[in-house]
Every structure is written in structure tokens, then in C-alpha cells.
Amino acid sequence: MMKKRILTGDRPTGNLHIGHLIGSLQNRVLLQNDYETFILLADVQALTTHFEHPEKLQENTYKVAIDNLSVGLDPNKVTFIVQSMVSAIAELTTFYSMLVSVNVLRHNPTIKTEAASYGYDDLTYGFLGYPVSQTADITFCKANLVPVGEDQLPHMELTRKIVRRFNSLYNCDILVEPEARLSNCPRLPGLDGNSKMGKSLGNAIYLCDTPETIKTKICSAVTDPTRISVKDKGHPEVCSVYKYHTVFNPQNSENICQMCKNAQVGCIACKNELYAKLNSILEPIRARRAYYESHKSEVKDILMSGTQKANLIGNEVVAEVKNAMGITILN
Ligand code: TRP
Predict the structure, then answer these.
(1) Domain count, the chain
(2) Atom 6 (ligand 1): residue with closest C-alpha?
(3) What is the pLDDT of residue 187?
(4) Domain for residue 258, yes or no?
(5) What is the rounded average pLDDT for all residues in the chain?
(6) Which domain holds residue 139?
(7) Taking a C-beta distance cutoff of 8 angstroms, is the pair 23, 187 a contact?
(8) Span 64-74, mean pLDDT?
(9) Is residue 230 pLDDT above 90, yes or no?
(10) pLDDT per position as a tens digit, 81-136
């Protein structure tokens, strides 16, 4: 039996962090054995917010590809794709754009939140329409499953709607309605106590950080602000370091919680234990990174051959789509 397909992607706007690790990357590594997996380096989508700096795209594409490889995605199993090099995605985006109203896009809650966070009040056509292009990302290979974060759910609903509309309008069953798969890991707060760890917020631990950097970052992480001395009883529920323990040190986090509440462990000891745990998780990732960073041409080959495979698949789907629409043959 043919394996079902997964497609998921990252916008190459900079290195990935430990929030990505637990929120999506670990999940990808688990799923790669059971599904035919496609990882899209969504460089065109990165342009929707970073169009003023296209010169950074290529370097960031390599960075994000290496982040994915270093966590254990196996290039012999997984297809890595550079979005801008797959013309089927651009073509499908054009056809799908006829099936979506501008108002629906303007009311998309993720578009609204992101527009506000970038300070946009007048949206570009490309930014407003990126969920349509994301539909093309997912459907060019007829993906069945799309592992994403919660913020992507409105886009997944739109994708499913476009697929149904296309199939019913053109009386075919060419496009596949994909399902979203959420990770069951909680969202990591930032080192500064902000509810989100973000590339642009300066409060993240990156997969590529050295042990020394990680040590410094954890040392300066914000804990319970009411705990001034070791003798004060702590409130782990408001402490980001404790939250990290629950994720990266689950075996001992309950113990730490009790000790903190009873003033039996200080923040420094607690942070040292987290550092040791996190570092042991990141060590094998670092080793694979070192390999790929010294074998850049291998990474290039992985991206080129994956993209070539994507083009073969995508061109076939575009042909099917045009055929269903009756726009292939000139009479
Ligand atoms: N928008 C996604 C994000 O910001 C990235 C992405 C682009 C994506 N194309 C995709 C995710 C296709 C899933 C499927 O995380």
C-alpha cells in the first residue's frame, strides 16, 4: 500500500529554536517513518513580510534546512523543497485565487494577528493572499496530513474549503482534502517570561546556540518575580524555567515544583539542572549540524533533488487541474 503524504513547512526567516523543536520538529521526526514526508522551505511566503531583504533568503533557506536535518529528519526518507523553485505552486495559487473572496482573507484571524504584530495597516496582495498560496503548497503533492501549530488552523480550514470548491465546481475529485495535525506539546514561553518564544522577540534558545550561550541565556531567564531570596516560597506556575522543566525534564519536574513551592531549591540550582538536561538533548543535534555545516554541497544536493521531485509531482497535478478546468487544449 502507498504511504499517505505529509507536507509541512517553515518560512526561512532565521534559525529555528527549541519552541519549534517541541512544537513541530520532533513530531516530524516521528512521522517520517509512517508517511511520505515533504518539508517545504517556504521562501516565497517569507517574502510576504521580508520582501525588502530578498538577499537573505538563500542563507536562511540553508539555515532552516540544516535545522531540520540536524534534529534527525532523514534525507533518504524526506523530500526537502525550495518553494520558489516549484512553478506548480505559483500556478495553482493563481487558479485558487479565483475561488477565495478578499473579505474571507481579511477576516482570517491569523492574518489579522500577524498584520497587527508587523504593524501593517495596509496589507499587500501577497501578504493577504498567502493562505491561498499555502493551499497550493499543500495540494501540489496531494498531501493528506499537515502537521502545524494552532495558529495555522484558519489556513487549514481555508485549504479544505478551496479543495472542496474546486472539486465541486469543476466536477472532479483531483484535489485531496488535507487534515491538520496539532502537536500535543504546550507552547514554550520566552526566556523573558513573554508568553511566546519568538524569532523576532529576542527571547529564544536556538538549536544552533553553543552550550555557553545556552548557559548564559538560562542564567538570565526570568523566574518568579516575587521570589527574592532562596528562603522565599516560589510559584512555579508563573516561572518560565519551571515550564521548560516540564517539557525537557519531565521525570523530575514534579519534584522541582514541590521543592520550589517549599523553598527547598533555589533558582540557580534549578537553572543548572535545566541547562544540563537541555544540553544533553541538544548535543546529538549539534553533532549532526556540525556534519551538515561542513558538507554544504550535500545539503545543496538534498534541496535540489527534493525540489526536482516536487516539480515532477507538481507539474502532473497542474496538468490534471487544467484538464479539469478545460483549459489545456486550444481548439
Ligand atoms: N505558514 C507556515 C508557518 O508560518 C509555514 C508554511 C508555509 C506551511 N507553507 C506551508 C505550513 C504549508 C504547512 C503547510 O508556520
Answers:
(1) 2
(2) 9
(3) 85
(4) yes
(5) 95
(6) 5-188+296-325
(7) yes
(8) 98
(9) no
(10) 999 999 999 999 999 999 999 999 999 999 999 999 899 989 999 999 999 999 99
Same domain assignment for residues 69 and 131:
yes
Convert the pLDDT of each residue in 243-281 to its tens digit: 999 999 999 999 999 999 999 999 999 999 999 999 999
**Whether residue 137 sits in one domain with residue 217:** no
Q: Verify that 152 and 269 share a domain, yes or no.
A: no
CB within 8 Å of 308: residues ≥ 6 apart:
none
Instruction: Give residue for cell 538534498.
Output: 302
Say how many Å lie between the CA of residue 41 and the centre of ligand 1.
9
> Which cell is 12 given?
526561512
Ligand 1 residue neighbourhood (C-beta within 6 Å): 7-11, 40, 42, 45, 134, 137-138, 146, 148, 152
What is the DSSP code (8-state) at residue 25? I
Residues 176, 132: one domain? yes
Rounded Cα–Cα distance for residues 84 and 93 (Å): 12
In the chain, count H helices and then E strands.
15, 5
Mutate-to-test residue for ligand 1 from 45, 133, 141, 200, highest number of ligand atoms within 8 A of CB:
45
